Amino acid sequence: MSSDARAQFIRFAIEAGILRFGEFRTKAGRMSPYFFNAGLFHDGAMLGRIARFYADTLSEAERGAGLRYDLLFGPAYKGITLASATAVALAQAGRNVGFAYNRKEAKDHGEGGTLVGAPLAGRVVIVDDVISAGTSVRESVELIRAAGATPAAVLIALDRQERGGTAQAPTERSAVQEVNALYGIPVFAIASLADVLAFLGSDGGDAAGLAPWRDKVAAYRERYGVAATT
Question: Residue 118 is part of a domain; what is its CATH number?
Answer without folding.
Answer: 3.40.50.2020
